[in-house]
Amino acid sequence: MEEKEQKKKKWLLWLLLLLLLGLGGVWYYLNNQSTPTPLASRDLMPDIIDATDRELAERAQEIADADYFTLNLNPEAYFEDGESEGSIQIINPGTNVYPIALELFLEETGELIYESGGILPNQEVTSARLLIPLEAGEYLTRADVHIFDPDTLERLRTTHAQVKVFVNN
Q1: Which segments cross the bilayer (predicted)?
Q2: Which residue from 68, 91, 92, 142 has the fewest beta carbons nearer than 10 Å?
Q3: For residue range 19-72, what is the model confidence (pLDDT) as tens digits?
Q4: What is the domain-level CATH number for residue 102?
Q5: Helix (H/G/I), strand (E/B), else coil: 165
């Protein structure tokens, strides 16, 4: 009889061990399921409440694009003479959200020789007239490109480039 009870206890221990192993396996499986990581946190964009992951990703890309700025500026400008309109190329691509304005200063004297005025995204300037007449020659200039907030028109920052100005006559 005692032998029968020991066999019974042994079977119960094995059954309990097997049950614990099974429960441990289920727990491990449930806790290690890979959940898709969202592309962007909804906490960062509270204005989007019921957006799909795709809409959320598109909005996140818009925000990232707003911080990106490009400028197409021809490093050479040509004028037939120092008083007539000449060829200059300044492009504010449509991918920008920021309006810009460009000023050209002579490297030697710091004198302002050109102001573009505001250039909105997707606009370009292809011709210009100098503010002061220049004699024939080649001039090194510093282009100050001012970048403005699209809502307040407050100047956010300025970047610089070099432009060679050629005056033929």
Answers
A1: 12-30
A2: 68
A3: 888 888 888 888 887 665 555 555 555 666 667 778 777 777 777 666 678 899
A4: 2.60.40.2550
A5: strand
Which residue intervals of the chain are DSSP H helices?
A: 2-31, 53-66
Residue 40 CA to residue 138 CA, distance in Å, equals 51
CA distance 35 to 69: 35
Cα–Cα distance between 59 and 32 in angstroms, integer?
30
Q: Look at the chain and report how many structural domains it folds into.
A: 1
Determine the structural domain holding residue 91 and report its residue range. Answer: 70-167
Does the pLDDT of residue 1 top 60, yes or no? Answer: yes
User: HEC profile for 79-117?
Assistant: ECCCCCCEEEEEEECCCCCCCEEEEEEECCCCCEEEEEE
Answer for the pair 126, 76: CB distance below 8 angstroms, yes or no.
Answer: no
Segment (H or E) for 123: strand 123-128
Domain-embedded: residue 14: no
For residue 143, being part of any structural domain is answered with: yes
